[in-house]
Amino acid sequence: MPPTTAQKEQFTKLLTEHEAALRKVVLTYGVTHADREDLSQEILAQLWASFGTYDRSRPFSTWMYRVALNVAISHVRATTRRRRVITEVDTSPLDTTDPRQTPNSDEEPTTLLQRLIAALDELDRALLLLHLEQRSYQEIADVMGLSASNVGTRLNRIRNRLRELAATTKEPHKESR
Amino acid sequence: MNPDHDLELADLQAAWAKLDTHSLAQLPRLAAATDALVEDRAQTLVRRAMVMPTVDMIGTGAALVGCIATAAHTGSTIYFVCLSLVIACLAGLIVASALQLAALAHLDAAAPILTAQRQLARARSIRIFEWKWVLLLSPLLWTPFLVVCVEQLLAGLRDGAAPGIFSAQFVVASLAIGAAASLVLWWISGKVAAHFGGTSFVHNLLDDLAGRNLSKARDFLARLDRFERD
């Protein structure tokens, strides 16, 4: 059944409200500029394709994160297979710099953050992203399909892993200045 | 966030908030994007997942039609039995592909991540498993195909020359050679694939044959289980 104008308007309105969150998903999982363009297109397409199943009585953000993260994780896995890139130990920073933009002093913490996120696997990345977006444990659990207590345990492990990674990336980080 | 300090998630949250201000991921303009989506042109998670099972089903269907047509023309019992086995295998593969497609068609992209990813990973494992055995057993299929094709060719050229110009011994020997070829193929895939670089299609086929792709798909399934359980 073709979508109605009202549906399209509602979809566009909801997307506009949550655009920043979607950008974060794309930024977390996309590697290059072109890759991010593809990923954002895929996420939007799937959101629209699944919009008919969205239960209006439930929060849009939970539904949106589920769709966006499912697409992003599948995209990363497919891209990794195509490129034969081993991501498990890849701690190289993500290509987040727009060549048109001049560097500024605020770049450093975000670069380190992205370096750390890139070192995590796809599932831990999703968990961390939701936590950084200040979602409650219950909402994270709903998105991931875990229990709330499991979310707490896993986030604790991620924090320990990030501490280790931050310690190991500290030296190259200083050298690059 | 200072890497010299003990790292806390709160530190990351501060950097995360800043990230938004110079987030450079360009989402297409929403209006333009939804227009394109309404026209149904864009790739989706489900469509992407359905591509390979669809290709498998079309390929297997074509092979099935070929086999049935060939079996209908053979006058030899042994070839007919061989082809019947092949037809049964191909029919099984078509059913398996159809079941996969049906499962993927009902995939809910808005399901919890572990549920949806598990479903996708299972479908991928089954497909790779099928491909591995199709590739490994394909040398065996050439014998009945070749024999019947040659028979039909000769029958067309000279009345009464076919069927049954090949002895049973020839067929058995050909099948034995096919089995040996399968083993060699499997051995080579294990040894050679590691030396292929880049994104070659051949590399992927060799990885399917050697079982590396299947291991990776199963590893991901195991990882999903651990993620849920731990």
The general outline of chain A is: globular
Helix/strand class of chain B: mainly alpha
Distance from N terminus to C terminus of chain A (CA atoms, Å) equals 57 Å
Mean pLDDT of chain B, as a whole number? 75
Question: How would you describe this structure to a colleague?
Answer:
The complex is a heterodimer of chains A (177) and B (230). Chain A has 177 residues and is mainly alpha-helical. Chain A is 71% helix and 0% strand. Chain A contains eight helices and no strands. Chain A has helices spanning 5-17, 19-29, 33-50, 60-83, 107-118, 122-132, 137-144, 148-175. Mean pLDDT of chain A is 78; it is low at 85-107 and 173-177. Chain B starts with 8 loop residues before the first helix and ends with a helix. Helix content of chain B is 77%, strand content 0%. The model of chain B is unreliable at 1-5 and 21-26 (pLDDT under 50). In chain B, helix 3 (45-73) runs antiparallel to helix 4, helix 3 (45-73) packs parallel to helix 5 and helix 5 packs antiparallel against helix 6 (168-192).
Summary, kept brief:
Chain A is an all-alpha fold and 177 residues long. Chain A has eight helices and no strands.
Write out key terms for the chains shown.
heterodimer; A: 177 residues; mainly alpha; 8 helices; B: 230 residues; 77% helix; elongated; disordered N terminus
Topology:
The complex is a heterodimer of chains A (177) and B (230).
Chain A: H1 5-17, H2 19-29, H3 33-50, H4 60-83, H5 107-118, H6 122-132, H7 137-144, H8 148-175
Helix pairs in contact in A: 2-3, 2-4, 2-6, 3-4, 4-6, 4-7, 6-8, 7-8
Chain B: H1 9-21, H2 30-38, H3 45-73, H4 77-105, H5 113-157, H6 168-192, H7 201-210, H8 212-229
Helix pairs in contact in B: 3-4, 3-5, 4-5, 5-6, 5-7, 5-8, 6-7
